[in-house]
Every structure is written in C-alpha cells, then in structure tokens.
C-alpha cells in the first residue's frame, strides 16, 4: 500500500473520483485544492511544500497554459516523492488536432518532459473529451436547459468516462507495472454530439436538443452574452476537435491499464443523475 497519496485538483472531474476510488481501496489520501482538506494553489508556491510533505505518490492535474509542473515535480523529488501520475491531453502529438489559441500545448509538452526527466516513477494519462462535460462541465448548463448550441457540426468524439480515467490513475498511483507508460484514454466508440444528446434524453427522460452552429455564429452568441471576443474564439477553438472529428479515433489506454474495456457513453448516461 502506498504510504500517502496527494491528489491535486481534488475537486475537479477526475480528481474527486481519484480521491474516492483511492479511499475505497483503503489508501490514505491528501485531497488538495484551493479550498478543501489540503489548501493547495498552483499559483501560490508557498502552499506546495505542506501538500507534498510525507507523500509518496502524486496525481498532478496541471493548470492550462502554465509551466508550473516542472518546479513542482522537482520539489516533490527533493521531498521524497517516488511516483507521479500526470494528467495531460490527448492529441498532444498531432499538430492538426486543434487550434491552440489559448497557448495550452507548450505547457502540456513541458509538463510531460518534466515528469519524464524527474527521475521518479512516472505515468502520463492523455484523456480525450470527458463524457462528464455533458453532466458537470462545459456543456452541463446548456443540457440542463434542454438546448445545446455548439459549432460541432456532425463530427464525433470517443468520449471517455471520468470514472475510467480515475480508475487508470488510481491503478498507476498504487500498483506496479505502470512506470514509464503513456495511456491515451478514450471510450470504446465515437459518438456525435447529436447521438450523445439523444442518449442523454433517453436516460434523463426529458428532451434535450442539439443545435449546430457555425463557428462565427457561436462566437457572436457568446459575445452577445458578455464574453470577450478573445475568450469566445478560444471556446470555439476548444470545440474544433469535435467539429473536425480529430478526437473520434479510439485509444487502448483503458484496456492496457485495467485489462478491461472502457465504459460506453450509454453506460455513462445511465449511471448519471441528470439535473
């Protein structure tokens, strides 16, 4: 059993599930976030050492657009951490995956290099689009109102269940056999946004409608709602892999890490309590 595990981003979609799954297995967990059990703020380095003290394994959920993982991992190694699992991003090796107007890619690449060069046991997870974006993330408010308006066209993505992501992370933090592994994580099939919304409608027992927009229409709507043009364009760029189908390919990371197939989108929808 790992002596103590630090989970950063412990209130996020993957982090909170990692905390739960670790505790269900009987591991001691330090759940770190800006507010919560262990105060931790990526932008306040004075909080780092207390979070890492006495820890042997760390789940690192980084802040997009920053290069803070490198100094954090260096400090972790100095304080006796032995194992690190990094949450990275799918498509990092594909220059055509998406337009990076938010400057996220450089940070992801630096973070991956940092853990590889750390001298620690390391595992990198590269999840695709979370299925939970429909229930507690990017699309949740629109789904709850019954109409999801996106510039996603009829493209598809192999949405991955955050429960599967957490299971892979939990295994990598606590079991042998995952050192120097890069796990790209996806669901078992590509699903269009229209198909996803239809599946949600079936399991939520209410109608949710998908309205496809052009990128310019989407940006204009967000700007009319008070979003800055720059941020509106960044949101449109985030959706680009859905529209272009560059996140539709399937990955074997869940199968390799857990020796079982990933959950389907329908299984995710059936297990979710819809707002």
UniProtKB/TrEMBL annotation:
Gene3D superfamilies: NAD(P)-binding Rossmann-like Domain, UDP-galactose 4-epimerase, domain 1. InterPro entries: Ergot_Alk_Oxidoreductase, NAD(P)-bd_dom, NAD(P)-bd_dom_sf. Residues 9-175 form the NAD(P)-binding domain. It holds the Pfam family NAD_binding_10. SUPFAM superfamilies: NAD(P)-binding Rossmann-fold domains (SSF51735). PANTHER family: PRESTALK A DIFFERENTIATION PROTEIN A, PTHR43162. This is NAD(P)-dependent oxidoreductase.
């Amino acid at each position: 059993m790992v002596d103590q595990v630090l989970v950063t981003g412990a209130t996020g979609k993957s982090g909170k599930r990692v905390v739960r799954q670790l505790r269900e297995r009987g591991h001691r967990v330090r759940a770190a976030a800006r507010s919560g059990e262990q105060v931790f703020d990526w932008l306040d380095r004075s909080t780092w050492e207390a979070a890492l003290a006495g820890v042997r394994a760390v789940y690192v959920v980084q802040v997009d657009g920053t290069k803070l993982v490198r100094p954090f991992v260096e400090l972790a190694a100095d304080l006796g951490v032995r194992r690190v699992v990094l949450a990275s991003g799918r498509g990092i090796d594909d220059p055509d995956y998406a337009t990076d107007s938010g400057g996220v890619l450089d940070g992801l690449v630096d973070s991956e290099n940092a853990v590889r060069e750390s001298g620690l046991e390391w595992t990198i997870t590269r999840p695709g689009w979370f299925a939970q974006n429909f229930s507690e993330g990017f699309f949740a408010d629109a789904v709850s109102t019954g109409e999801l308006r996106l510039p996603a066209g009829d493209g598809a993505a192999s949405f991955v269940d955050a429960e599967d992501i957490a299971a892979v992370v939990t295994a990598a933090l606590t079991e042998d056999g995952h050192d120097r592994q890069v796990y790209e994580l996806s669901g078992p099939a590509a699903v269009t946004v229209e198909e996803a919304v239809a599946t949600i409608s079936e399991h939520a027992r209410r109608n949710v409608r998908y309205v496809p927009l052009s990128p310019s229409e989407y940006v204009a709507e967000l700007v009319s709602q008070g979003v800055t043009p720059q941020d509106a364009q960044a949101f449109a760029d985030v959706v680009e892999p859905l529209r272009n189908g560059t996140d539709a390919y399937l990955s074997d990371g869940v199968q390799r890490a857990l020796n079982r197939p990933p959950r389907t989108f329908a299984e995710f929808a059936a297990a979710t309590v819809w707002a």
